[in-house]
Design goal:
Blueprint lengths: L7 E4 L15 H14 L3 E5 L5 H10 L8 E7 L11 H8 L4 E7 L2 H8 L3 H17 L3 E7 L1 H7 L1 H14 L3 E6 L6 H14 L4 E5 L6 H10 L4 E4 L13 H11 L7 H4 L2 H11 L17 E2 L2 H9 L17 E2 L7 H10 L10 H15 L7 H11 L8 E10 L8 E10 L2 E9 L2 H13 L10 E9 L10 E8 L4 E8 L2 H19 L1
Parallel strand pairs: 1-2, 1-8, 2-3, 3-4, 4-5, 5-6, 6-7, 7-8, 9-10
Antiparallel strand pairs: 11-12, 12-13, 14-15, 15-16
Helix pairs in contact: 1-2, 1-12, 5-7, 6-7, 8-9, 13-14, 17-18
Amino acid sequence: MKKKPALSLYDTTLRDGAQSEDVSFSVEDKIRIAQKIDELGIHFIEGGWPGANPKDILFFEKMKTLPLKSAKLVAFGATRRWRFKPSKDKNLQDLLDAGTEWITLFGKTWDLHITDALGITLDQNLEIISDSIAYLISKGKKVFYDAEHFFDGYMAQPDYALKTLETAKKAGAETLILCDSNGGSMPWQIKEMVEVVVKEIAGPFGIHAHNDTEMAVANSLTAVAEGVTQIQGTINGYGERCGNANLCSILPNLKLKMGIDVISDEQLRHLRNVSRFVSEIGNLPHNKRQAYVGESAFAHKGGIHVHAVRKKSETYEHVLPSTVGNRQRILISDYAGKSSLLEKAAAYNIPLEDDNPQVQTLLKKLKDLEHEGFQFEGAEASFELMMKRAMGTQSSFFDLIGFRVIDEKRKKNEKSISEATIRVSVDGQIEHTAAMGNGPVNALDNALRRALEKFYPVLSEVKLLDYKVRVLTASQGTASRVRVLIESGDGKKKWGTVGVSENIISASWQALVDSIEYKLLNG
């Protein structure tokens, strides 16, 4: 590897990331994300394309009164249109009106785009690049130049691709960004082309990689190894098509694997928090298998693995989870053995020693339950309750006497009506109540809460956040066994519970009861 360069980090979550399918950030969303990314230590934050939509114009207007702590806000846009002088080009004027010190301007590199898409000559394209950059600099701006489709353009006409970079540099661009816009380049191709660029053209250079071949992170790090001094990417890899280079992987790889201190240790410890914050604001599920920051990144299931990490975490963990704000998790399944069980017992403050005969009893019960279809990896609250009940350290907060659920459709074009009636006993006192709901499970949930809140007012805090049903024995058709997974929360924490039965209402009941008992157990 060559001498480690001084790097700058450039985030484009608010522009490229917002182009991801299923993502739609409001102006307020963009402000909150920008402030969060600023705290992470990112050097440049691309706020959007002010000429593309009113939302981005309003964002830049609001940000004029909300300065970032350390990051520089960047406006993004295209070089001028061929038939307009820079002073008359609306796109360039919108970029100036955004009020940022820095502007990223993208231009064409690939002859296919120049002649077929823009319908101009190669020389005319060079003129557009030159006078667009020069005009913005004459207005006191600093310009990053994004060489769109650089690697495809280089493979088609290498001399011309280099000429576009020379033109941008001569016009005054601060950094030349090499863009793998189609995301189709391989790391060895990136290496070869960046080597030539760094040798032939005066830098500095940046890399902007898309992830269509799952190579965006690898391509970005390869470019850094060859002398590139700016990496562009997005939080969680959000972006057009398959996404952009994922900064949540790039940051720890730079710092922990390549020894480049792009951000502080303390900032890196907030990485997982930032990752989850952005996915929450974007209303997207967290990718649990995402490197470094995912819920499964440091989760261990196999008995041999668990036994080893209990002694030394580095046996199956390449970095300490805490360095990126994550945590080690020991999963419980029929693949796990005594080590997993003891680890979990310790986590739940259950006194269980290695030589305790109940260990084997618990292991057998666990394997029997999973054979029936129970799964505790997404339902650790149910597992904790199962252990404590088996150990005799957990008594029930209430006893079910019985319940009935009615689902009725009275007219063809009307919605079904669901009603649940329930009788429970709390310390010998019987409560009999009923409730309606949006479906039989919701009705049962409402009736159970109504019956118990009189005795346990704290249950008013509990909300059902997610409900999943999986068919386990599809060959049985509608008589198949199902597994119900429920996620609940109280505003402070979340927990998962599980139930299994051939009857979906019974399976749901099991998971609902565990959810409530877990809340009562833990306050």
